[in-house]
Amino acid sequence: MANTPETTDETFAADVIESELPVLVDFWAPWCGPCRAMEPAIDKLGESMEGRLRVLKHNTQDHPSKPMEYGVMSIPCFLVFKNGEEVGRNLGMMDYGDLESFAESHL
Q: Of 16, 23, 24, 35, which one is the catalytic site residue?
C-alpha cells in the first residue's frame, strides 16, 4: 500500500506501544478489496494529522501475531493506541470524514 508507513509484528512495540503520539493502526491485507479502497483515505489522514497522530498499516497476512493478540477478526479494522493502550476500534470501510472523526475523537 502506497504512502502510509508499515508496522510489523516485530516492530509493533516500538512503532505503536512506545510512541509518544497516539497511533492509528490500519489492519489490512493485499487481497482485501475494501482495505485497498481505503488506501487514499488512510494516506490523506496520515498527511493531515502529521505531528498529532501517527498512522500506520499492519499487513495481517504477512504479520498475523498482533492482529490475533488484539482480537482483529475482520478487516479493514482500525485501532487507536494512546500511551500504549488501545483506546478506540472501528471495523469496516469508512469515508474520509468518518475516518477523520474517528481519529479526532481519540486524540
A: 35
Domain boundaries, given as residue ranges, for the chain: 6-88
Query: How high is the pLDDT of residue 85?
Result: 97
Which residue stretches of the chain have pLDDT < 50?
1
pTM confidence score: 0.95
Q: Which residue has the cell 478487516?
A: 75
For the question of residue 35 being annotated catalytic, the response is yes
Place of cell 489490512: 28
Q: Report the pLDDT value the prediction gives residue 17, as an integer from 0 to 100.
A: 97
Selected catalytic residue, list 1, 29, 32, 93? 32
Distances (CA, A) of 35 to 38, 51, 79, 94, 106: 5, 24, 14, 10, 22
Question: What would the CATH number be for the domain defined by 6-88?
Answer: 3.40.30.10
**Dist CA 88 CA 80 (whole Å):** 5
Q: Has 77 been annotated as catalytic? A: no
